[in-house]
Amino acid sequence: MMRRPTILERFRARFGGDPRVYRAPGRVNLIGEHTDYNDGFAMPAAIEFYCWVAVSTREDRKLSIYSEEFSAAADADLDSASHQPSKTWSDYPVGVALQLEQAGFRLRGANLLIESEVPMGAGLSSSAAIEVATALALADQSGWSPDRVRLAQLCQKAENEFVGARVGIMDQFVSLHGQEDHALMLDCRALTFESLLIPDSVKLVISNTMVKHELASSEYNRRRADCEEAVRRLAEVLPGIRALRDVSLEQLERHQDVLSEVIYKRALHIVTENARVLDSAEALRSGDIARFGMRMAESHRSLRDLYEVSCRELDLMVDLAYQQRGVFGARMTGGGFGGATINLVDARYAGEFKEKMAKAYQKETGLVPQIYICKPAEGASPVSSSDL
Ligand code: GLA
């Protein structure tokens, strides 16, 4: 069989010259869903699926970008006064370049070849991976090394303002700060984190439903608006609150009457989910995986019944997981409306879990799921050419 050319060889064939290469990982969120844009807590881990960007500088101020996934090229002129989103893959790298420039990091023109192994539409943050890998590549080429928290914020802003998805900061943050064998207990207000060891005795098993429903992005933005509405109403009776992060369960219950039924359900999910993340962190610190698993089960029910971002396929995947041996916890992960579940599985049974889940899900749906046995990975970095 012919060897596939390396990213260096493909870059040389397309653009000529020797590039530098950067990579940024996707992520899986263990618990704390839809809490990031409520200034709350989340617990993501970077995973060993990367977006790779090979880059070299140009003499002009143009970006010439090629995507291996889409077999498509895109150009952008950094000196142009107006940039319109194209509603395609290239909005991610272009949006990031524009944000860096707006923040005062003047960029050099560049040739970029982008290649990603992060499954798309699976809720594993292929978007954050492309944003972060591009941001690192462009900044470094231009002689900048912005602080990583700042980089995460700029990538998030690119997605909010240029791509048009009002995402929180979790994905970009963990893609930049991930640590091998650890999940990050992330405080999305303070933008600080604690690394928590995931013991070798458990595996993170990601199960992709292979569906992504149309609703995903419009409903995501709507949920965010629901949370803002909850804060507006509650602030009338609880002056000083800035986000649902500031509301206790007792306060929410006491003031339930200022919220419509739907908005109350949304807020109840966020308030209880934040508490579950804190408890899960405590469980990990004391090595109590069973307790962690219970919080995951509750999280899924809350996302399904209160936040209403699950779907038939995700619910089925979770139900099937609980029928397998060695499962501590299972829940949907990411924004919802399709994508993947995260399962915490006793390492001894991870192989069996994968096999049985694949069969059972296919039997019920006719779809062949992709199932990955993962461990937490390092965040984004340059890659030396000897490692390619
Ligand atoms: C998507 C967003 C994140 C986060 C999750 C839900 O992945 O990009 O910011 O809001 O959904 O937890």
Q: What is the level-2 CATH architecture name of the largest domain?
A: 2-Layer Sandwich
Mean pLDDT: 96
Q: Give a quick account of the main beta sheet: strands, pairing sense, barrel closure.
A: 6 strands, mixed
Strand order of the largest sheet: 5-4-6-3-1-13
Helical fraction equals 40-55%
Order of SSEs? HEEEEEHEHHHEEEHHHHHEEHEE
State the total count of DSSP E strands.
Answer: 13
Q: Please, how many domains?
A: 2
Percentage of residues in DSSP E strands: 15-25%
Structural class: alpha+beta
Contiguous low-pLDDT stretches (5 residues minimum) are none
Helical stretch count? 11
Rg, rounded, reads 21 Å
Q: Tags for this entry?
A:
binds alpha-D-galactopyranose; 388 residues; globular; 2 domains; alpha+beta; Alpha-Beta Plaits; six-stranded mixed beta sheet; four-stranded antiparallel beta sheet; Ribosomal Protein S5, domain 2
Please characterize this protein's 3D structure.
The protein is α+β, with helices and mostly antiparallel strands. The chain has 2 domains: 7-197, Ribosomal Protein S5, domain 2 (2-Layer Sandwich), CATH 3.30.230.10; 202-374, Alpha-Beta Plaits, CATH 3.30.70. Helices cover 40% and strands 23% of the residues. It has helices at residues 7-15, 91-102, 126-141, 148-163, 170-177, 216-237, 249-254, 261-285, 289-305, 312-321, 350-365; strands at residues 20-29, 41-42, 44-57, 62-67, 72-77, 110-116, 182-187, 192-197, 202-212, 327-332, 338-346, 370-374, 381-383. The strands form 3 sheets. Strands 5-4-6-3-1-13 form a 6-stranded mixed β-sheet, with helices on both faces. The longest helix is centred in the C-terminal third of the chain and has 25 residues, at 261-285. The protein starts with 6 loop residues before the first helix and ends in a 5-residue tail after the last strand. The mean pLDDT is 96. Alpha-D-galactopyranose binds at residues 29, 33-34, 36-37, 167-168, 170-171, 334-335.
